[in-house]
Amino acid sequence: MVVKKLFVTIIVFLGIFGLIALSSCGKGKSTLRIYNWADYIPQEVIEKFEKEYNCKVIYDAFASNEEMYAKIKSGGSGYDIVFPSGDHVKMMILAGLLEKLDLSKIPNFKYLDELVLSKTTYDPNHEYSVPYLMGTTGIIVNKKYVKDFERSWSIFERKDLAGKMTLLDDMREVFGAALKYLGYSVNTTNSEEIQKAKELILKWKENIAKFDAANYAQGIVNGEFWVVHGYPENVFQLIPEEELENFEFVIPEEGSTLWIDSMVILKDAKNKELAYKFIDFILRPEIAAEIADFLYMPSPNKEAKKYRKMKPLYEISDLQNCEIIDYLGDKIDLYNKAWEEIIK
What we know:
Helix 6 packs across helix 7 and helix 7 packs parallel to helix 12. It is built from twelve helices and eleven strands. By secondary structure, the protein is α/β, with parallel strands linked by helices. Strands 1, 2, 3, 4, 10 and 11 form a six-stranded mixed beta sheet that branches. Strands 7-6-8-5-9 form a five-stranded mixed beta sheet.
């Protein structure tokens, strides 16, 4: 009887202890807040990280670097990790918004391709940023509706496609397209060249349905648009497998922009240690391969190809005629003024 009472007492004690432990565990569950481009990390990858580190990830999306920067600059965003493009990494460094990184906490940094690292002119010593992906923007064509086309930015001059095309709602990307078409650098600060690019974009504007960075992918997949300027990874992950042959991604013969999206930790991040763990997790070769497959993109992780299951839409070697968008300092006002005149 005494033994039975003792056994019951132990069971009750263990039950109470277990409830307390579970309660404490629930209250102590860490939250990582991420601000990134839409549909840029597979949900399965997020869930794997949450499970491994017993945490909750909150993922908010932005449609342009300008939108992202304005929100972070205004303060109080509450985010831990952000995924800006190169020129905006530089802007955020100069604005004092970023945490200086301790790369010893990111051992998987060693897997990044040296070619990609050499392109990070905005943060050459990787003191504040870690490359996530490198790629290009270009033209996606729905060949069910457009049978013949040149692999050129001149497609936006076609009156027969008026109302069925979109350009990105992104100032530097649109100017980059026009400048490359005209034979200029995407980073020119020559006011005459920027003026000529503005005039060309205004001609293109007559034929497009809208400037769009949020819905163009779904629009071309469902047939609302036939030609879009954008990121192929946003489009091809939405296309049903049986429809893939009807779509083509084109890097125009004149060249295009080159972008590197990076992972940065905000200076006022509330969970910096978990942020470090997330960055290192993303750089695991098998995780990097899963991301690249999801987006049909080349991976900047040199070991990822051992784990890849999909063929990318293009290779790093296809980007020779593409130019990275650099930070322009005060000279960006030349673009801002011209862009305002375009979108008014």
